[in-house]
Amino acid sequence: MNANLAKFESPFKLKVVIKSGSVNDTFNYMFNDRLAIVGTVSKSNGKLTGVILMLSGDGTTESGLHVFAIATSAYSALLGKNELGTGVPANLVLDLFKKESGDAAKILNNIKFTLVKSEQIGNMFTADPL
């Protein structure tokens, strides 16, 4: 994800510290007070089992670009190495945003990607391997 963020010339860098849990291990990181990521990791195989991105802009173009860069970088990392250059992750994020109301979801490469828009919490992106 950090390599993808660098391609966007984003000021953010993900720093993951995995914490042991009873069923799954977890990590969380706040990029700033409006941008956060939470993930779960399987104890049995060490693979990522889910990601939640809480992303809320402040109304400026710059914050909107930060939301787009983080969502696209995370989704790209989940889809595989070098996916960012294909345009697939960016189109995925844009497709999810295009839905006018309610939740939007799309399955790609056996991963369910979801966007929940909320006035109260902003945008919640999820990615769950099926």
UniProtKB/TrEMBL annotation:
Domain of life: Bacteria
The protein's name in its UniProt record: Uncharacterized protein
Organism classification: Bacteria, Pseudomonadati, Pseudomonadota, Gammaproteobacteria, Enterobacterales
